[in-house]
Design goal:
The protein has 1 helix and 40 strands. By secondary structure, it is mainly beta. It has a 24-stranded antiparallel β-barrel. Strands 1, 2, 3, 4, 5, 6, 7, 8, 9, 10, 11, 12, 13 and 14 form a 14-stranded mixed β-sheet that branches.
Length: 750
């Protein structure tokens, strides 16, 4: 039996053994009761105050449990939930009692930027009642909102936005929130017999961070939604048929310079169109023509100068966000960022209590880069023709198990070939503390890279990818293991795979020692990895013991040592022995310095370009500063460095490589609808030519400034006015380049 088969079988047998020891699914402790509003009743005024008489007719659900800082106990503050509905809307009223209302943290925040340093409420609404995924609706005590899709597999995906109304109010008893969510914004089967389920989270940050749930969520649980409770009383719900048409107009002027020469100067007026149509409550059809993907938000800069692998970036473009959670599987087989410049797209999404289906077809313009993953680096090829990308995913639910399949196809124009991927996946949530995931994929490719770096039709190659991971935890221990096997010819042009041609096993064992005041949590852990390339050569082997602690002010810290790490960065290169120290901490000191996070690695560092070992490290730091409730400042800094120790080839010692990345994100809120955002980004890479025996670029840098004013009338009705300037310079190799753009973007939803 091969190494791969033995490991996969071991994972399956281990999970099956522990699964027989579990006690089954979470027992329901309460139910939420929804009351239908009489047809002749007055409308509810959404002002956040819960003083409409109709709220008094709704039963109160007030059983909440604390999960953080300590779980398995009743919440120390009372929270009440009431639910009403009519032919169009679902209404949820929340009262969050607070002994010190003056300490409630309620800053202004942009949409989808509600964070753990604020007082907020989150509704996890699962119309299928399957406890696998939910739509989530956040609101902080100021009334700022965040929404999206939540899954225990992938966490929050806040990219999808929904049109709903919510208001809040602070009084001498605490604060209240009043939701009005159109049924047209919730994906459900109106003929389903399974009741909806709901989980409510209340977050409060003071000298501690308190997480309080309407279900008894534990810190060891791998399935928060398993603690959701049914919503009874929802009957004769509407079909929710509706449509939205969103035209967008972008007017811009851009200029590019190389040195003192203007290389491009252009003005444009571009009109795009997005259509969303819901023929019934469980089906959504999205279409787009010439979508505009102006980068209103900038991705955070990442350290990439000392790696040969591409770095993943999350999707932010609105058209691709409907049903994005359905496309998420253990492996990134579908990454819509691979669709670089679509000029048209069509998407079908259907959700009900038994299954989820989503199919996306888009036409991508020529010029996009295609990842060509290998064992030791990520290659790139260019698609010089238009291509058609098709992504399809179906997922069926069977009690505590779900099974799905994925199909992707990229067909390149002018007969330049194709890439196709297909495979099944399985998720088994044995109980709230045990999880098993498996995914198998096969690929077939005829679009091969030519000698000129462009894709062209060539020989047919086939490959496979296999993945399995298992987790089980309780109050004293947690165990996890992950197995991956990617053949060297596996390729997924519609996904994101930076590396193939390897097999690996990773594991973690955690001992939870409990609470030792002032510590809320004291854990010791052991992590291990073993990785081989496609030829059976060792790529990496590591053994890392460590300790994690948690305490007041939502603080946490860790310290770990890797006493022996073996790594190979070239196919026929040396396997290096290295040693490292890893440490870091995070905390929320107070209202003004809302969050501070620092991570550090020190020790032996491999210089990838030179294929040698030096001494160095990496430091990353970020903060959230709320100097005023109307002002957000979010700085981040990262640095990676390598010192050459001197050897027979190059006797000189000194700093060989340094890379820094800086971002300063500043947002001023003039009102709940008007914001001004300034982002500064800087990246700088330097190498000492005297410490390399080949030619290197001594210095390169890039800077970006972006200023955008935003007026948001409502979802889909937005005005952006912006200016962006970027400069890049590499000493000796090329002249300084400068790009500048001013733009205005108008979006209005019909």
């Amino acid at each position: 039996m091969t190494f791969r088969k033995k490991t996969l079988l071991a994972c399956l047998l281990t999970s099956a053994f522990f699964g027989t020891m579990t006690s089954g699914a979470h027992a329901q402790t309460q139910s939420f009761q929804a009351v239908r509003i009489p047809d002749n009743a007055p409308k509810i005024n959404i002002d956040g105050k819960l003083n409409d008489p109709l709220w008094q007719s709704a039963p109160v659900s007030d059983t909440f449990y604390q999960t953080q800082p300590i779980d398995k106990q009743k919440a120390h503050l009372k929270t009440e939930v009431r639910i009403l509905y009519d032919d169009k809307y679902l209404y949820v009223g929340i009262r969050a009692y607070d002994n010190a209302p003056a300490d409630i943290r309620a800053p202004f925040a942009r949409r989808d930027k509600v964070s753990i340093d604020q007082d907020f409420i989150a509704l996890y609404i699962d119309p299928s009642g399957a406890h696998k995924a939910s739509q989530v609706f956040y609101v902080n005590a100021r009334g700022a909102v965040m929404d999206g899709i939540y899954s225990d597999m992938t966490g929050d995906d806040t990219a999808p936005d929904y049109q709903y109304d919510v208001a809040t109010a602070i009084d001498n008893e605490g604060w209240t929130a009043e939701y009005r969510i159109p049924f047209s914004e919730i994906a459900y089967n109106k003929d389903a017999t399974q009741p909806w389920s709901l989980l409510v989270l209340r977050n409060m940050t003071r000298d501690q961070r308190y997480r309080m749930y309407s279900g008894g969520v534990t810190r060891a649980a791998s399935c928060n939604l398993c603690f959701s409770d049914p919503v009874t009383g929802l009957r004769d719900l509407p079909s929710a048929s509706n449509w939205h048409l969103t035209p967008q107009l972008v007017v811009r002027r851009a200029e590019d310079r190389s040195g003192d020469q203007v290389t491009r100067s252009a003005s444009s007026r571009d009109l795009s169109l997005d259509l969303k149509f819901r023929p019934d409550s469980s089906t959504t059809i999205d279409g787009t023509i010439k979508p505009d993907f102006s980068q209103i938000e900038l991705d955070a800069p990442q350290l990439s100068g000392n790696t040969k692998f591409s770095i993943f970036s999350p999707e932010k473009r609105p058209f691709f966000l409907e049903g994005a959670d359905i496309f998420k599987t253990p492996l990134n087989v579908i990454s819509t960022r691979s669709i670089a410049n679509p000029d048209a797209g069509l998407r079908y999404t259907k959700r009900d209590e038994q299954k989820d289906i989503s199919v996306l077809v888009s036409r991508d313009a020529a010029g996009g880069l295609v990842l060509l993953p290998n064992s030791y680096y990520t290659g790139l090829a260019t698609s010089v023709t238009r291509s058609v990308a098709t992504d399809a995913r179906v997922n069926f639910r069977f009690g505590n198990m779900s099974a799905g399949a994925v199909l992707t196809d990229r067909n390149y124009g002018d007969g330049r070939g194709y890439n196709r991927v297909f495979g099944p996946d399985l998720v088994w949530q044995a109980d709230e503390n045990e999880l098993l995931r498996i995914q198998l994929l096969g690929s077939q490719t005829t679009a091969q890279a030519g000698t000129d770096g462009n894709l062209q039709s060539g020989n047919t190659t086939s490959g496979y990818a296999a993945f399995a991971d298992w987790y089980r935890g309780n109050d004293a221990w947690s165990y996890s293991a992950t197995y991956k096997d990617f053949s060297k010819n596996f390729r997924a042009d519609n996904g994101f795979f930076a590396q193939t041609g390897f097999r690996s096993v990773n594991g973690e064992l955690v001992r939870k020692w409990g609470k030792y005041p002032p510590l809320h949590e004291l854990n010791t852990y052991l992590q291990a990895e073993y990785k081989l390339d496609a030829d059976g050569n060792l790529m990496s082997q590591s053994f890392t013991p460590g300790i994690r602690i948690a305490s007041h002010y939502d603080s946490s810290a860790y310290f770990a040592v890797s006493p022996s790490v073996r790594s190979r960065i070239q196919r026929f290169g040396e396997a290096y022995d290295t040693r490292k120290i890893l440490t870091g901490f995070a905390l929320s000191p107070g209202r003004h310095l809302a969050r501070l996070t620092i991570d550090m690695t020190f020790g032996d560092t491999i210089d990838v370009d030179a294929n040698r070992i030096g001494r160095g490290g990496t430091l990353t730091a970020s903060a959230k500063i709320r100097a005023h409730d109307r002002l957000e400042i979010e700085p981040s800094y990262a640095v990676n460095w390598i010192d050459h120790p001197g050897n027979t080839a190059i006797s000189q010692k000194g700093r060989a490589f340094t890379e820094t990345a800086i971002q300063l994100n500043t947002i001023a809120h003039f009102s709940s609808k008007d914001t001004l955002r300034w982002i500064y980004q800087g990246r700088h890479t330097s190498r000492n030519p005297s410490l390399y025996n080949f030619s290197v670029t001594p210095d390169s840098q890039r800077q970006v400034n972006s200023v955008v004013y935003t007026h948001t009338q409502a979802l889909g009705k937005v005005i952006y006015l912006g200016w962006t300037q970027s400069t890049a310079e590499a000493a000796i190799t090329s002249p300084r380049t400068k790009q500048q753009e001013i733009f205005a973007k108008f979006s209005w939803r019909i």
